[in-house]
Amino acid sequence: MRKILLALAGLILSTQCLAQVVTTKGTGTVSYGWSLSTSDKDKAYKAAQVAAVERYFAENGEAESENFEAIQPKVEANLDKFILSTTIINEQNQESVKKYSVAVRVELNVAKLRTSIRGSSATAKAGAGDKSQLVYVFMGREASSVRSYDDRVVKRAELTRESSLDASMSDKGAEGEKIRGNTVATAARRDVSANAKRKDSATLETGGSTTKKADEATYRLLPMTNTKTSITSVFSQGGFQVVEPEFVLQDGDMKAVNADFSTGNDLQPNTIRAVVASLRKNQVPLLVLATLDVGIPSQDEATGMQRVAVTVTGRILDVTGNFPREVASVPAVQYFGVGPDNASASGKALKDAATAAAREVVARINAAGIH
Predict the structure, then answer these.
(1) Dist. CA 230–CA 118, nearest whole Å
(2) Pairing of strands 298-299, 183-211
(3) Residues 25 and 98 occupy one common structural domain
(4) pLDDT tier at 343 (50, 70, 90 boundaries)?
(5) Domain count, the chain
(6) Which of 291, 279, 286, 289 is nearest to 249 (CA)?
(7) Which residue, among 98, 63, 351, has the nearest Cα to 230 in the 3D structure?
(8) In the predicted model, what is the mean pLDDT of residues 316-320?
(9) Residue numbers of the domain that contains 163
(10) pLDDT tens digit string along 36-72?
(11) Domain of residue 40, CATH code
Protein backbone atom coordinates (compact mmCIF):
# COMPACT_ATOMS: atom_id res chain seq x y z
CA MET A 1 0.00 0.00 0.00
CA ARG A 2 2.82 2.38 0.88
CA LYS A 3 4.47 1.78 -2.51
CA ILE A 4 1.20 2.58 -4.29
CA LEU A 5 0.82 5.84 -2.36
CA LEU A 6 4.41 6.80 -3.11
CA ALA A 7 3.91 6.09 -6.80
CA LEU A 8 0.72 8.19 -6.84
CA ALA A 9 2.53 11.02 -5.06
CA GLY A 10 5.32 10.87 -7.62
CA LEU A 11 2.74 11.00 -10.43
CA ILE A 12 1.07 14.05 -8.87
CA LEU A 13 4.42 15.82 -8.50
CA SER A 14 5.28 15.04 -12.10
CA THR A 15 1.92 16.41 -13.29
CA GLN A 16 2.44 19.59 -11.31
CA CYS A 17 5.88 20.13 -12.82
CA LEU A 18 4.46 19.82 -16.35
CA ALA A 19 1.41 22.03 -15.60
CA GLN A 20 0.93 25.13 -17.71
CA VAL A 21 -0.92 26.99 -14.93
CA VAL A 22 1.26 28.61 -12.27
CA THR A 23 0.25 30.46 -9.11
CA THR A 24 2.20 33.58 -8.19
CA LYS A 25 1.77 36.78 -6.16
CA GLY A 26 2.10 40.49 -6.78
CA THR A 27 1.61 43.83 -5.03
CA GLY A 28 0.42 47.15 -6.45
CA THR A 29 0.54 50.59 -4.81
CA VAL A 30 -0.98 53.91 -5.94
CA SER A 31 -1.07 57.43 -4.54
CA TYR A 32 -4.41 59.23 -4.49
CA GLY A 33 -5.74 62.73 -3.88
CA TRP A 34 -8.28 63.89 -1.31
CA SER A 35 -10.04 60.52 -1.10
CA LEU A 36 -9.59 56.94 -2.30
CA SER A 37 -11.75 56.25 -5.33
CA THR A 38 -12.80 53.09 -7.13
CA SER A 39 -10.58 54.11 -10.03
CA ASP A 40 -7.57 54.28 -7.70
CA LYS A 41 -8.34 50.80 -6.40
CA ASP A 42 -8.65 49.43 -9.93
CA LYS A 43 -5.32 50.96 -10.88
CA ALA A 44 -3.57 49.32 -7.89
CA TYR A 45 -5.34 46.03 -8.64
CA LYS A 46 -4.07 46.03 -12.22
CA ALA A 47 -0.55 47.01 -11.09
CA ALA A 48 -0.58 44.05 -8.68
CA GLN A 49 -1.55 41.66 -11.48
CA VAL A 50 1.23 42.96 -13.74
CA ALA A 51 3.72 42.66 -10.84
CA ALA A 52 2.68 39.02 -10.38
CA VAL A 53 3.45 38.27 -14.04
CA GLU A 54 6.78 40.09 -13.78
CA ARG A 55 7.61 38.11 -10.64
CA TYR A 56 7.05 34.82 -12.46
CA PHE A 57 9.44 35.72 -15.29
CA ALA A 58 12.00 37.24 -12.90
CA GLU A 59 12.12 33.97 -10.96
CA ASN A 60 12.84 32.12 -14.22
CA GLY A 61 16.03 34.05 -15.01
CA GLU A 62 17.36 37.10 -16.80
CA ALA A 63 16.65 35.81 -20.28
CA GLU A 64 12.99 35.05 -19.52
CA SER A 65 12.59 38.45 -17.91
CA GLU A 66 14.11 40.18 -20.93
CA ASN A 67 11.86 38.25 -23.31
CA PHE A 68 8.80 39.24 -21.25
CA GLU A 69 9.64 42.92 -21.78
CA ALA A 70 8.97 42.43 -25.49
CA ILE A 71 5.36 41.41 -24.84
CA GLN A 72 4.69 43.37 -21.64
CA PRO A 73 2.54 46.05 -23.33
CA LYS A 74 0.44 43.30 -24.92
CA VAL A 75 0.04 41.52 -21.58
CA GLU A 76 -0.93 44.72 -19.73
CA ALA A 77 -3.54 45.50 -22.36
CA ASN A 78 -5.04 41.97 -22.23
CA LEU A 79 -4.56 40.75 -18.65
CA ASP A 80 -7.77 38.73 -18.74
CA LYS A 81 -6.31 36.54 -21.53
CA PHE A 82 -3.18 35.64 -19.54
CA ILE A 83 -4.54 35.55 -15.98
CA LEU A 84 -7.10 32.83 -15.22
CA SER A 85 -8.08 34.01 -11.74
CA THR A 86 -7.12 36.65 -9.19
CA THR A 87 -7.62 36.61 -5.42
CA ILE A 88 -7.04 39.61 -3.16
CA ILE A 89 -5.04 38.48 -0.13
CA ASN A 90 -4.38 41.83 1.55
CA GLU A 91 -5.36 45.51 1.31
CA GLN A 92 -3.85 48.51 3.08
CA ASN A 93 -4.94 52.16 2.97
CA GLN A 94 -2.42 54.60 4.43
CA GLU A 95 -4.53 57.72 4.76
CA SER A 96 -1.71 59.72 6.38
CA VAL A 97 0.41 59.51 3.21
CA LYS A 98 -2.49 58.99 0.78
CA LYS A 99 -1.32 55.58 -0.49
CA TYR A 100 -3.31 52.44 -1.19
CA SER A 101 -1.73 48.96 -1.61
CA VAL A 102 -3.23 45.64 -2.59
CA ALA A 103 -1.62 42.17 -2.70
CA VAL A 104 -3.06 39.49 -4.99
CA ARG A 105 -2.55 35.85 -5.83
CA VAL A 106 -3.08 35.01 -9.50
CA GLU A 107 -3.17 31.92 -11.69
CA LEU A 108 -1.12 32.49 -14.85
CA ASN A 109 -1.80 30.85 -18.19
CA VAL A 110 1.88 30.03 -18.79
CA ALA A 111 1.18 28.26 -22.08
CA LYS A 112 -0.35 31.42 -23.60
CA LEU A 113 2.46 33.59 -22.21
CA ARG A 114 5.14 31.38 -23.75
CA THR A 115 3.26 31.26 -27.05
CA SER A 116 3.18 35.06 -27.12
CA ILE A 117 6.91 35.26 -26.37
CA ARG A 118 7.71 32.81 -29.15
CA GLY A 119 5.53 34.79 -31.52
CA SER A 120 7.50 37.97 -30.82
CA SER A 121 10.95 36.36 -31.13
CA ALA A 122 13.33 36.87 -34.02
CA THR A 123 12.97 33.20 -34.90
CA ALA A 124 9.21 33.47 -35.29
CA LYS A 125 9.50 36.61 -37.43
CA ALA A 126 12.00 34.94 -39.75
CA GLY A 127 10.72 33.08 -42.80
CA ALA A 128 10.59 29.31 -42.90
CA GLY A 129 13.72 29.18 -45.03
CA ASP A 130 15.60 31.57 -42.75
CA LYS A 131 15.22 29.60 -39.50
CA SER A 132 18.50 28.27 -38.23
CA GLN A 133 19.44 24.67 -37.93
CA LEU A 134 20.64 23.65 -34.50
CA VAL A 135 22.58 20.71 -33.11
CA TYR A 136 22.49 20.00 -29.40
CA VAL A 137 24.74 17.76 -27.34
CA PHE A 138 23.29 17.12 -23.87
CA MET A 139 25.48 14.90 -21.68
CA GLY A 140 23.88 13.31 -18.63
CA ARG A 141 26.45 11.98 -16.20
CA GLU A 142 27.13 11.00 -12.61
CA ALA A 143 30.40 10.73 -10.71
CA SER A 144 31.81 7.20 -10.86
CA SER A 145 34.95 7.92 -8.80
CA VAL A 146 36.41 10.91 -6.99
CA ARG A 147 40.06 11.09 -5.95
CA SER A 148 40.76 13.42 -3.04
CA TYR A 149 44.21 14.65 -2.04
CA ASP A 150 45.50 15.39 1.45
CA ASP A 151 46.86 18.86 2.11
CA ARG A 152 50.60 19.24 1.46
CA VAL A 153 52.04 21.05 4.48
CA VAL A 154 55.54 22.62 4.59
CA LYS A 155 56.84 23.89 7.95
CA ARG A 156 59.75 26.32 8.42
CA ALA A 157 61.46 27.56 11.60
CA GLU A 158 64.19 30.18 12.13
CA LEU A 159 66.10 30.43 15.43
CA THR A 160 68.01 33.62 16.37
CA ARG A 161 70.26 33.49 19.48
CA GLU A 162 71.98 36.41 21.24
CA SER A 163 74.53 36.21 24.08
CA SER A 164 76.36 38.81 26.24
CA LEU A 165 79.10 38.26 28.89
CA ASP A 166 80.33 40.67 31.58
CA ALA A 167 83.49 39.61 33.55
CA SER A 168 85.71 41.31 36.15
CA MET A 169 88.70 40.09 38.25
CA SER A 170 90.79 41.60 41.07
CA ASP A 171 94.06 40.30 42.61
CA LYS A 172 95.47 41.59 45.87
CA GLY A 173 98.74 40.38 47.66
CA ALA A 174 100.96 41.28 50.62
CA GLU A 175 104.38 39.93 51.82
CA GLY A 176 106.34 40.49 55.03
CA GLU A 177 109.54 39.37 56.82
CA LYS A 178 110.34 39.04 60.48
CA ILE A 179 113.92 38.48 61.84
CA ARG A 180 114.35 36.90 65.23
CA GLY A 181 117.85 35.94 66.19
CA ASN A 182 119.38 33.93 63.45
CA THR A 183 115.94 33.14 61.98
CA VAL A 184 114.11 34.98 59.24
CA ALA A 185 110.37 34.35 59.01
CA THR A 186 108.40 35.37 55.93
CA ALA A 187 104.65 35.63 55.42
CA ALA A 188 102.60 36.20 52.29
CA ARG A 189 98.90 36.70 51.63
CA ARG A 190 97.05 36.88 48.32
CA ASP A 191 93.38 37.65 47.76
CA VAL A 192 91.79 36.83 44.39
CA SER A 193 88.18 37.62 43.48
CA ALA A 194 86.36 37.15 40.18
CA ASN A 195 82.86 38.03 38.97
CA ALA A 196 81.17 36.95 35.69
CA LYS A 197 77.65 37.51 34.29
CA ARG A 198 76.19 35.95 31.14
CA LYS A 199 72.88 36.75 29.46
CA ASP A 200 71.34 34.61 26.68
CA SER A 201 68.19 35.26 24.60
CA ALA A 202 66.69 33.25 21.74
CA THR A 203 63.90 34.11 19.24
CA LEU A 204 62.06 31.36 17.31
CA GLU A 205 60.06 32.26 14.20
CA THR A 206 57.85 29.62 12.62
CA GLY A 207 55.90 29.61 9.37
CA GLY A 208 55.15 27.51 6.35
CA SER A 209 52.63 26.89 3.62
CA THR A 210 49.72 24.56 2.89
CA THR A 211 48.97 23.42 -0.66
CA LYS A 212 45.53 22.10 -1.51
CA LYS A 213 44.79 20.14 -4.65
CA ALA A 214 41.34 19.90 -6.19
CA ASP A 215 39.59 16.56 -6.34
CA GLU A 216 39.84 14.62 -9.57
CA ALA A 217 36.52 13.13 -10.68
CA THR A 218 35.65 10.74 -13.45
CA TYR A 219 32.09 10.44 -14.70
CA ARG A 220 29.83 7.71 -15.95
CA LEU A 221 27.72 8.90 -18.88
CA LEU A 222 23.98 8.28 -18.64
CA PRO A 223 21.64 7.44 -21.52
CA MET A 224 19.54 10.41 -22.69
CA THR A 225 17.15 8.48 -24.93
CA ASN A 226 14.08 9.18 -22.78
CA THR A 227 14.79 12.92 -22.73
CA LYS A 228 15.60 13.52 -26.40
CA THR A 229 11.95 13.85 -27.40
CA SER A 230 11.33 16.54 -24.80
CA ILE A 231 14.49 18.48 -25.71
CA THR A 232 13.77 18.33 -29.44
CA SER A 233 10.19 19.45 -28.82
CA VAL A 234 11.32 22.54 -26.89
CA PHE A 235 13.79 23.60 -29.60
CA SER A 236 11.28 22.92 -32.37
CA GLN A 237 8.59 24.95 -30.62
CA GLY A 238 11.18 27.68 -30.21
CA GLY A 239 11.34 27.92 -34.01
CA PHE A 240 14.61 26.10 -34.72
CA GLN A 241 15.27 23.25 -37.12
CA VAL A 242 16.74 20.57 -34.88
CA VAL A 243 19.27 18.16 -36.34
CA GLU A 244 20.33 15.10 -34.38
CA PRO A 245 24.08 15.16 -33.63
CA GLU A 246 24.45 11.61 -34.97
CA PHE A 247 23.61 12.91 -38.47
CA VAL A 248 26.12 15.79 -38.36
CA LEU A 249 29.07 14.76 -36.21
CA GLN A 250 31.52 12.06 -37.22
CA ASP A 251 31.86 8.88 -35.17
CA GLY A 252 35.27 10.04 -34.01
CA ASP A 253 33.77 13.37 -32.92
CA MET A 254 31.20 11.68 -30.71
CA LYS A 255 33.81 9.40 -29.15
CA ALA A 256 36.03 12.39 -28.38
CA VAL A 257 33.09 14.33 -26.92
CA ASN A 258 32.16 11.40 -24.68
CA ALA A 259 35.76 10.96 -23.56
CA ASP A 260 36.19 14.66 -22.73
CA PHE A 261 32.99 14.91 -20.73
CA SER A 262 33.87 11.71 -18.89
CA THR A 263 36.87 13.41 -17.29
CA GLY A 264 36.09 17.13 -17.33
CA ASN A 265 33.55 19.90 -17.75
CA ASP A 266 34.49 21.07 -21.23
CA LEU A 267 35.77 19.85 -24.57
CA GLN A 268 39.45 19.70 -25.43
CA PRO A 269 40.63 22.17 -28.11
CA ASN A 270 41.15 19.47 -30.75
CA THR A 271 37.69 18.05 -30.03
CA ILE A 272 35.84 21.34 -30.36
CA ARG A 273 37.75 22.15 -33.54
CA ALA A 274 36.67 18.84 -35.06
CA VAL A 275 33.05 19.37 -34.00
CA VAL A 276 32.99 22.89 -35.48
CA ALA A 277 34.48 21.58 -38.72
CA SER A 278 31.70 18.98 -38.99
CA LEU A 279 29.03 21.62 -38.35
CA ARG A 280 30.45 23.94 -41.00
CA LYS A 281 30.69 21.09 -43.48
CA ASN A 282 26.96 20.45 -43.02
CA GLN A 283 26.12 24.19 -42.83
CA VAL A 284 24.67 24.02 -39.32
CA PRO A 285 25.22 27.42 -37.62
CA LEU A 286 24.34 26.76 -33.97
CA LEU A 287 25.76 24.28 -31.44
CA VAL A 288 24.35 23.81 -27.95
CA LEU A 289 26.51 22.04 -25.37
CA ALA A 290 25.15 21.13 -21.93
CA THR A 291 26.17 18.90 -19.05
CA LEU A 292 23.66 17.51 -16.57
CA ASP A 293 25.38 16.26 -13.41
CA VAL A 294 23.25 13.91 -11.31
CA GLY A 295 23.85 14.16 -7.58
CA ILE A 296 23.64 11.59 -4.79
CA PRO A 297 20.06 10.57 -3.86
CA SER A 298 18.71 11.60 -0.48
CA GLN A 299 15.40 11.26 1.30
CA ASP A 300 12.87 14.00 0.73
CA GLU A 301 11.63 15.22 4.11
CA ALA A 302 8.20 16.20 2.84
CA THR A 303 7.26 12.95 1.08
CA GLY A 304 9.71 10.37 2.41
CA MET A 305 10.62 9.43 -1.16
CA GLN A 306 14.01 9.65 -2.82
CA ARG A 307 15.15 13.09 -3.99
CA VAL A 308 17.86 13.72 -6.59
CA ALA A 309 19.44 17.00 -7.68
CA VAL A 310 20.72 17.64 -11.20
CA THR A 311 23.08 20.55 -11.92
CA VAL A 312 22.91 21.97 -15.43
CA THR A 313 25.45 24.14 -17.24
CA GLY A 314 25.45 25.02 -20.92
CA ARG A 315 26.74 27.25 -23.70
CA ILE A 316 25.58 28.18 -27.21
CA LEU A 317 28.10 28.64 -30.01
CA ASP A 318 27.62 30.37 -33.35
CA VAL A 319 30.05 28.80 -35.83
CA THR A 320 29.19 30.85 -38.92
CA GLY A 321 32.01 33.40 -38.60
CA ASN A 322 35.73 32.99 -39.08
CA PHE A 323 35.95 31.97 -35.43
CA PRO A 324 33.21 30.36 -33.33
CA ARG A 325 31.76 32.69 -30.73
CA GLU A 326 29.74 32.04 -27.62
CA VAL A 327 26.45 33.88 -28.04
CA ALA A 328 24.88 32.83 -24.73
CA SER A 329 25.53 30.62 -21.73
CA VAL A 330 23.50 28.90 -19.03
CA PRO A 331 25.06 29.26 -15.57
CA ALA A 332 24.96 26.36 -13.14
CA VAL A 333 21.33 25.76 -12.11
CA GLN A 334 19.95 22.94 -9.97
CA TYR A 335 16.74 21.00 -10.59
CA PHE A 336 15.24 18.29 -8.38
CA GLY A 337 13.33 15.11 -9.00
CA VAL A 338 11.39 13.00 -6.52
CA GLY A 339 10.45 9.33 -6.92
CA PRO A 340 9.77 6.15 -4.99
CA ASP A 341 13.29 4.84 -5.70
CA ASN A 342 16.68 6.14 -6.80
CA ALA A 343 16.29 5.15 -10.45
CA SER A 344 12.92 6.86 -10.96
CA ALA A 345 13.99 9.95 -9.01
CA SER A 346 17.19 10.25 -11.10
CA GLY A 347 15.31 9.70 -14.35
CA LYS A 348 12.69 12.31 -13.53
CA ALA A 349 15.27 14.85 -12.36
CA LEU A 350 17.32 14.30 -15.52
CA LYS A 351 14.31 14.74 -17.80
CA ASP A 352 13.03 17.85 -16.01
CA ALA A 353 16.51 19.38 -15.94
CA ALA A 354 17.07 18.71 -19.65
CA THR A 355 13.70 20.23 -20.57
CA ALA A 356 14.30 23.26 -18.37
CA ALA A 357 17.80 23.69 -19.80
CA ALA A 358 16.43 23.59 -23.36
CA ARG A 359 13.86 26.26 -22.48
CA GLU A 360 16.57 28.41 -20.93
CA VAL A 361 18.70 28.04 -24.07
CA VAL A 362 15.78 29.09 -26.29
CA ALA A 363 15.06 32.04 -24.00
CA ARG A 364 18.67 33.22 -24.15
CA ILE A 365 18.87 32.78 -27.92
CA ASN A 366 15.65 34.78 -28.33
CA ALA A 367 16.96 37.46 -25.97
CA ALA A 368 20.09 37.72 -28.12
CA GLY A 369 17.93 38.16 -31.26
CA ILE A 370 19.35 35.09 -32.99
CA HIS A 371 17.23 33.15 -35.48
Answers:
(1) 17
(2) unpaired
(3) yes
(4) confident
(5) 2
(6) 279
(7) 351
(8) 90
(9) 152-209
(10) 899 999 999 999 999 999 898 888 777 777 778 888 8
(11) 3.10.129.140
